[in-house]
Amino acid sequence: MEQTQSQEAFRDQLRAFTQQHRAGHWRGSFAEFVEQVLPRAPVQLARSSHQYIWDMLRWSGKEGDDGKLRCSLFADELFGIDDALARVADYFKAAAAGSEVGRRLLLLLGPPSGGKSTLVIRLKRGLEEYSYTDAGALYGIAGCPVRESPLHLVPHTLRAGFRDSYGVDVVGELCPYCRMRLEHELGGDFLRMPVERIFISEAGRSAIGTYAPHDPNTADVADLVGSVDLSRVAEYGDEGDPRAWSWSGTVYAASRGLLEMIEILKVKREFLYLLLTLTQEKNVKVARFPLIYLDETILAHTNLAEFRKFLQESENEGLLDRMVIVQVPYTLSYREEARIYRKLILSAPAFRDVHLDPHVLHAAAVFAVLSRLHEGEERDTDLARRVRIHAGEDVDGMHHNEALRVRNKERSPDEGLSGVSPRFVINGLSHAIIQSAGKSISTMDLLLALKDAIDSDARIESSRKRRWIDYLVLTRKEFYNRWVKEDVHKALFVSFEQEVSDLLDKYLDEVEAMLDNRQVKDPITSEERRPDERFLRAVEEKIHISDSGKQSFRQEVVRKAMSAYKRGERFGLGSHAQLRDALQQYLFEQRRDVLRLVSSSKRPDDEVRAKISAVEQRLVDEYGYDGHCAREALSYVTTLLAQE
Fold first, then answer.
1. Strand order in the sheet with 194-198
2. Could you give the dihedral angle defined by the CA atoms of residues 24, 30, 36 and 37, in that order, rounded to the nearest 10 degrees?
3. Cα(114)–Cα(137) distance, rounded to whole angstroms?
4. How far is CA 123 from each of CA 88, 182, 365, rounded to the nearest angstrom?
5. In the chain, count of helices (H) and strands (E)?
6. Up-side HSE of residue 582: CA atoms within 13 Å toward CB?
7. Residue 271 vs residues 254, 286, 537: alpha-carbon distances, Å
8. CB 255 within 8 A of CB 294
9. The PrkA AAA domain covers which part of the protein (predicted)?
10. Phi, psi (5° rounding) for residue 297?
C-alpha cells in the first residue's frame, strides 16, 4: 500500500514537472522573430553567456540579507564549500555587469574529490533546465553550427537605431557559415533567415561543451576548433568554403553557454592561448576564415599538483594574469563532510539497506578533517578543539574572536587543500560494509576498516601512515568516546529529560539560597537546612569548575535564569550548555551500576537482563542504533568505565 502511494506521488511529480518545464517551441523567419518575439523581452534576448548563467543562478536561488546568493542548485550536492560557491557566484555577477572579470577564464583549483567537477555538473544541469523556462528562452539562427544569436543579422549601420528602439546593444558578428548562407541562399535578405528556439543540452552538444585532455603529445587543437572535412572539399571545391569545414570542435558546441575544460593545465600551451584569447576577445582564428565570434563562458578546473608545476614556469605569468582562480578546498566541518558520505552511500543501491550506527559518518568525517588541518606542534586536545570550532561548536575557554579567526583560516590559509579525500573514506566504508555479514556497521568497525585501508595503501608514505593512524586514535578518544557515552547516559534513564529537569530545578534552588545566604526547606522532611554545597560541587566538578571559580559560575547561571524569567521564558536544559552537560554527567554517575551489570554478570538473572535489554531498546528506539550496534555501544562504554 505504502509503495503504491509513493509511486502515485512520484507520477504526480512527473506531471507537475512537465507542466512547469513545458517549453514553447518556436520557428520562423528573422522578420517574424523581430515582430513576434523580440518586443516581449529584448534585454533577455541580448544576454551574453555570463549574463545568462548569472540569471540562471538567480532563478535557482535567492539572495540572503548579507547579499550572498543561496542556490538550491547546489543544496543537496555540495556541502561545506559555501565560500567557494559564493566566490563563483561573485565571478558571474561581476562578469554579467560588464566588468573586466568577464574577460577572464574561471579556474577552479583544489584537491582531488573536493567538489570541483560536481560544481560544474550542477551548473550544466541548471543551464539545461533553465533553457526550458520562459525566463531562460534562447533563440538562434536555425542551422547555424554555433547557434549564434539572430541579432547578429542586424547590419552594423542599423545597430545604433536598434539600440534606440529596443534599449540594448547588439554585440557580435555572423559566423562564416551563416554569412555564406545569407549571400548564396538568401541573396542577402537577412529578414528571411530562419530562426528557432534552442535548448541547452550537454548530450546534444548544444551550448555545453566538455574537453578532457588525453596524451599531450598527440592532442590536436582541431579537437577544439575543428578541421577541414575532406569529404566535402570535393563537393564544394574549396577548402576555404565554410561548408567544407567540420564544425565539431568543442568550442563550437559550447557557443552561447558553457565550456568545461577538465585538467586544463595538462594541455599544450597553444590550447591555453587559444582559450584565453577566446575569453578575452570572444574570437577564434581558424585558417582560411576571418575571426569567428563566439560567446561562451570557459570554466576550467585542475588539481594542486598541476597548478604548482604551472606556477614554476615563468612564461606562464601572462596566462595566470588572465584567469580568475577560485580555490575549492575540502570542507573542514565534520558535519558537512558527513553529509557528503551520506549522499555517496545513498547513491549506491546495495548500501542503502546497511545500518550505520549514528556516529559512523561523523567519526569518519572527524578523521578526515584532522588530516586536513595545518600540521603544527599542537597537542591532540588543541587539534580536537579546532575540529569542533570548524564545525561551529562552542569550545570552553575559546573567545568568539579567536574562534572566528580559526574558522576563517587566518593563521593557516592552506588548510583543506590536502589530506584525506572523501573518496578514500568511502572506499574504507565500502570495504567495511562488504565485510559485514549482518549488514550493520558500528563506529569501531569503521575505524578499524580505515586503519586497514591506511596500512594497505602503498601510495602513502610511512610517516603519513603513522600520523593518520594517530588521527584515528584521536577521533576515538576525543569524539566517539564522548558521543557514545552521552547516548548510553541518556538511554539509562527511563525518564531522562524529566530527571535532569528536576536536577536543574534543585541546582537553581540550592544556588539561589547559597548566594542569598538563606535556608532551604527540605521537600521531604519540611525542615530548614543549609544549601547543599556537596551537591553543588559534585555537579560543578563534572565540567571542571574550580573551587575558586564556583562563585562566578553560579552568579552567571542565576543571571541567565533571571534574564529568561524577565523575558517570560523558562530557564530550561537548553539555556546553559555547560550546566546541562554537568547535570547529565552527574545523573549518569548515579546509574553506573546498570552498566557494571553488563560486564560483571556472566549469567545475568531476569532482573539484570531486563535492565540491560531496556537500555539496548532505548538506544534502538530513540538514538538510531540497531540491536548489533546497541550491544556494541554498551559493551564499549562498559570497557571505558572500567578503565576510569
1. 27-29, 194-198, 138-141
2. 60
3. 33
4. 11, 35, 27
5. 30, 18
6. 21
7. 16, 13, 72
8. yes
9. 28-380
10. -100, 130
With CA atoms as reference, report the closest residue to 299 among 107, 40, 472, 573.
Answer: 107
Q: What is the pTM of this model?
A: 0.82
Count Cβ atoms within 10 A of the Cβ of residue 200 and give its class: 0-12 exposed, 13-18 middle, 19 or more buried: buried
Percent of the chain at pLDDT exceeding 90: 45
Question: How many residues are given for the chain?
Answer: 644
Cα dihedral: 613, 614, 615, 617 (round 10) = 80
Angle in degrees, 0-180, between the axes of helices 82-96 and 49-59, rounded to the nearest 10: 130
* CA 189/CA 182 separation, integer angstroms: 7
- 368's CB contacts (< 8 A; 6+ apart) are 330, 334, 337, 419, 420, 421, 422, 424, 425
Q: Is the dihedral of CA 102, 104, 106, 109 positive or negative?
A: negative
> Stretch 481-505: mean pLDDT, rounded?
81
How do residues 601-621 score in pLDDT, each as one tens digit?
A: 555 556 667 777 888 888 999
Give the whole-angstrom CA distance, residue 388 versus residue 474.
Answer: 13
Q: Going by DSSP bridges, is the β-strand pair 440-441/355-356 parallel, antiparallel, or unpaired?
A: parallel
Has residue 636 got a pLDDT over 60? yes
| Cα angle, residue 65 at apex, residues 61 and 66 outer, rounded to 5° | 95
Cβ–Cβ under 8 Å, residues 287 and 181: no
Residue 531 pLDDT greater than 90, yes or no: no
Specify whether the CB–CB gap between 341 and 429 falls below 8 A: yes
Q: 473: how many CB neighbours lie within 10 A of its CB?
A: 13
pLDDT tens profile 154-174:
999 999 999 999 999 999 999
3-state secondary structure of 377: coil
The span from the CA of 56 to the CA of 35, in Å, is: 26
Nearest partner of 99 among 149, 50, 56, judged by Cα = 50
Per DSSP (E only), the strands in 22-137 are: 27-29, 61-63, 69-71, 105-109
Report how far residue 214's alpha carbon sits from residue 459's, in angstroms, rounded to the nearest whole number: 24
What is the distance between the alpha carbons of residues 532 and 643, in angstroms, rounded to a whole number? 30
- C-alpha span between 25 and 79 (Å, rounded): 37
Rounded Cα distance, 290 and 283, in Å: 10
* Residue that is written with C-alpha cell 569503521 in the block: 446
